[in-house]
Amino acid sequence: MKTVTILGSTGSIGKQALEVVELHSDELKVYALVANNSVELLIEQAKKFMPAVVAIGNKEHEKQLKKELKGLDIEVMAGREAIIELAGSVEADVVLTAMVGFAGLEPTISAIESGRTIALANKETLVVAGDLIKSLCHQHGSVILPVDSEHSAIYQCLTGEQMKSVERIYLTASGGPFVDMPAEDLREVTPQLALKHPNWNMGPKVTIDSATLMNKGLEMIEAHHLFNVSPQQIEVVVHRQSIVHSMVGYQDGSIKAQLSYPDMRHPIAYALLYPQRLEGHRPLLTVEEMTRLTFEKPRREDFPCLDLAYEALDRGGTATCVMNAANEVAVQRFLKGEIRFTDIPKVINYTMDVAPERHANCLAVLKESDANARAIAQAWYDGI
Question: How confident is the model at residue 381 (pLDDT cuts 50, 70, 90)?
């Protein structure tokens, strides 16, 4: 029986993780559930799964949480520091880090420093602090198992192989909702249109990142850190069916791929139950479903966020932290209808050019760079 802490239990990944726990209740048990604001759903989850601890980031909800869970054998915590402390609890075997954005970095570091196994769904952790995270994992004996479908696929394709024989990683992308939209029409894209992903059910931030191809840029940086491959070895490929979740090419000319239905419960279960493979939520693909698989190059000139990610990684230091912060600001402004879809890469590019470059050697520097980049990205919006 593995015990699991879920950071971000009320988000898309967190809710699907609880479905996996429910299906495999003889193998998995929830130790702790963590949310930021969605107190009603957190209460519902707590009553159903009866964790030892629940935590809410927004302290304004602490009173309601305690009232609703009174009489149950569940400890209630509140505030950001409480979340960081809970993430590092040695009571959990696995910590699923599914908090969105930079906010997930410190709790993930706390879990690593306690030597926990990390089921990583927060790609920004490695984007912002990849070198620091790798160093901490080595120091504390913590293992990262990727939850992103693409990185889970790569991990599975690499099992039993020697890294020196890897020639290329093919990172697949659905292409998002605007894969065929003429470049001149992208300027008029609305948040409502951008949130309609053709294949995946994801949270709003990840869905917009998918539409701009920034999600592939973030995943490229994550793959670089996870698998110790150069950016030049990582090729983004548009695969509209989202059946092939990624591929690995080897120096002998072989290519290995991982195929399954586009369902996040598959990589979540793989990470939580590793090395076991148990009955899942979906059956095997049929032969008919595997007969029409297509691959094509992305339209990089029309979706420049992908190249901005390669540029940030090439610059090194805090550049990827700056890029990530600017993207988070730009996406939120777009979702509020305050900037255009095509402004998102402009905000990122401007921020990367203006923000000072520093060595990303500690958390304090990364936090300062993140805050500074957000201010610069906001200033672009305000026309300052």
Answer: low
Dihedrals φ, ψ of 156, to 5°?
A: -65, -40
Count of residues for the chain? 384
Q: Which two tokens stand for residue 224?
A: 């670089």
Rounded to 5 degrees, what angle do the CA atoms 313, 146, 28 make?
160
For residues 283-308, one letter each, b for 16 or more C-beta atoms within 10 angstroms of the residue's C-beta and e for the rest, the string is eeeeeeeeeeeeeeebbeeebbbbbb
CA angle 39, 42, 45 (to 5 degrees): 155
Cα(243)–Cα(262) distance, rounded to whole angstroms?
6
Could you tell me the pLDDT band of residue 382, with boundaries at 50, 70 and 90? Answer: low
Q: Would you state the pLDDT for residue 384?
A: 43
pTM above 0.85, yes or no: yes
pLDDT tens string 118-148: 999 988 899 999 999 999 999 999 999 999 9
What value does the mean pLDDT take over residues 175-184?
Answer: 92
In tens, the pLDDT along 292-316 reads 999 999 999 999 999 999 999 999 9
Assess whether pLDDT exceeds 90 at residue 279: no
Instruction: Say which residues have a Cβ less than 8 Å from residue 284's Cβ, sequence separation at least 6.
Output: none
According to the model, what pLDDT value does residue 203 have?
Answer: 78
